[in-house]
Design goal:
This protein has two domains: 39 residues; 36 residues. The protein is mainly α. 74% of the residues lie in helices and 0% in strands. The chain is extended and about 50 Å long. The protein has five helices and no strands. The two termini are 20 Å apart.
Length: 85
């Protein structure tokens, strides 16, 4: 399958994906960018981060706790199965 076919196939799957799959795809892309773009150093990555206020950090922690309580969590086995690896 060529690049254009792969792109088309992925676009179709992304359009039909639920939030769980979109989060996995986003995490994969982030990981690949960090792994395969050697000129993107840790210092550059850290410089690109936006500092959070205490309120933003607290809201993020509360949202994370709510996700955990609601069972919206995935262990590494689930992710590997979803990715077929």
């Amino acid at each position: 399958m060529g690049a254009e076919q792969l792109r088309f196939s992925l676009i179709q799957r992304i359009e039909q994906a639920d939030e769980k799959l979109l989060r996995v795809i986003n995490s994969m892309v982030d990981a690949v960018v960090l792994e395969y773009v050697p000129e993107f150093t840790a210092a550059e990555y850290e410089a690109s981060l936006k500092p959070m206020t205490v309120e933003e950090l607290t809201a993020r922690a509360i949202a994370s706790d709510e996700d955990i309580a609601a069972g919206r969590v995935h262990d590494s086995k689930d992710v590997r199965e979803l990715l077929g690896i």
